[in-house]
Amino acid sequence: MESPVNLMQLQFDVIQTVNAIFNTTDRQEWHSCQDLFADEVLLDYESLSGQAPIRLAPSQIISAWQQVLPGFAFTQHMLSNHEVSVIGADQVSCVCKGHAVHYIPNAVGGEEWGVYGTYRFELVRHPGGWKVSTMQYNHKFAHGNLKLGELASERVRQYNQ
C-alpha cells in the first residue's frame, strides 16, 4: 500500500498526464502529446462517433487528430472532478468530466460546437512517468453546430492541397 504522501504524488502525476493530453492538443503540440501515450492505446469514442473501439499507435492517434483539430480557429478542452484509482503496482485509472469547445468564426450553422461527457483513462507506469494506455470518452450531449467537425476537416484538407 502506498503511503498517503506517495498516493498524493501519484494522483497529482496521473492528473497532470491526463490534463497534458488536452493542453498539448489545444496548443497543437503534437510531439509532446504523442509522448503521453503508451506504445499501444485502446481509443474508444464509440459513444460519440459510433465507431468501435480500436487499438492504435500514438502516431496514428495524432495523425487522425491532425486531420480535424487544426481546422478549428480555437479548441478548448476542460477536465474536472478527476478520480484516480490504483489498479495494480504499475497501472491506474482516472475518471473525469470533460467539456470541449470547438470554434470557427462565421461558420454557416453557427460558430461553436460543444461536447460534454466523461472520460475513463487507464495509465501504465513507464520510466519517464505515466502513459495513457486506454482513453474512453462517454458522450452525454452536444450543443451548437453539430457539423463544425466536418467543416474543420474540410478546412484542413483545403489547407493541405
TrEMBL record:
Residues 14-135 form the SnoaL-like domain. It comes from the Bacteria. Pfam families: SnoaL_4 (PF13577). This is SnoaL-like domain-containing protein. It comes from Spirosoma fluviale.
